[in-house]
Amino acid sequence: MHGTDISPDDLSRLIDRIYEGAAEAVPWQQSLESLRSALRASYATLILRPAKPGDPGFMVNAGAISSGALDAYESTYYALDPFIALPVDEVHTVAEILGEAGWRESAFYQQFNAPLDIFHILGADLADAGGDCRLRICRPHGAPAFDAADKAFCARLLPHFKRALRLHGRLERSEVERRLYASAVERMRIGTLILDSRQQVLESNQAACELLAAGDGLFLLDGCLQASVRRDDLALQRLIAQASRERQGGGPQVAEAITLARPSGRAALGVVVQSLPGRNPAEGKQAQVAVFLRDPEQTASVPQQSLRQLFGFTPAEAALAAQLANGLSLEDASLRLNISRNTAKAHLRSIFGKAGVNRQSELACVLHSSVAFLCAEKPGE
């Protein structure tokens, strides 16, 4: 169907796909394919990050173009592209900007486009869309040129693309923040679980999965959390139900803590239950309750490299300090590191001086209150 003849329903579906594209694995792949079909084009491309020296950029393409051609553009031919820096938020053809003769004479056309049977190009550069974003639509030599109706149709879609691009940017930033915070919590050996309105687990991090897999004090039953000891389970279910009610009623996000005994006799698990903020409690699968778990016997490891950087420890001192921070005595740490007690004492005196403390308890406090735990461990440490 020609874009200018598109039905209201098809136009609505195309606009829906533009917004859905913000969350697609390959963003805007479906909407670009719909746009390419509507305009009877061979290719439709959204350049989200233009290529530049040392950076191939990022673009999404609809149409049967080879990966080799895309790689060639991103590595070489982008530098020859004259159809750039268009008047923002306006739709233009390559003939309008360069003239047909100028376009035919350009190295970009002769070396890249002509071999791919690309002659007619319709384009728009989008302002305030999270960067230098470009929309390009191409037709072959034998196809009719893009006309005023095609340009008007494309122009109607630009505001939707811009809003979707801004939405995509916010989603990307939120995902980056989520991964950042999740990795920090993971390094601190804190298990996290997200429950829905049916109190079933929606998400869990690695630390939580390991604790649940052990089944010692807490496990999953039909997707729901259950404590090993009945008395503890009654208390846990009460806290989860209370947090869910607070979430649905818009009440304060109060965190409640309990301990769960473990049948193995190991130290009890620490559990914190808290309601999550939300806007639409009618959604059954929406996150409603967060559960945080901590095994007191699973201490967060301190990356030795970060200790060397923060306190100026030598490699040997950092290795000893890391063991002490994990709760080992000086004797146990020296045995684990295969060093003599006298050597360990010498290292400890130097560590005290550099950390500005006089006792091991003070050292543990300084190390645990530092940012060392937020650094990722390097392989081999």
Unreliably modeled segments:
none
Return the structural class. alpha+beta
Query: Helicity level, as a percent range?
Result: 40-55%
What about the largest sheet? 5 strands, antiparallel
Question: Tally the helices: what do you get?
Answer: 14
Overall structural domain count: 3
- DSSP E strands, number: 12
Overall pLDDT confidence: 90
For this structure, the CATH topology of the largest domain is Beta-Lactamase
Overall, the morphology is elongated
CATH architecture of the largest domain: 2-Layer Sandwich
CATH class of the largest domain: Alpha Beta
Q: What is the N-to-C succession of helices and strands?
A: HHEEHEHHHEEHEEHEEHEEEHHHHH
What is the C-alpha radius of gyration, as a whole number of Å? 30 Å
Report the portion of residues in β strands.
Answer: 15-25%
Q: Looking at this structure, what is the CATH superfamily of the largest domain?
A: Transcription factor LuxR-like, autoinducer-binding domain
What's the arrangement of strands in the largest beta sheet?
A: 2-1-5-4-3
Q: In angstroms, what separates the terminal alpha carbons?
A: 61 Å
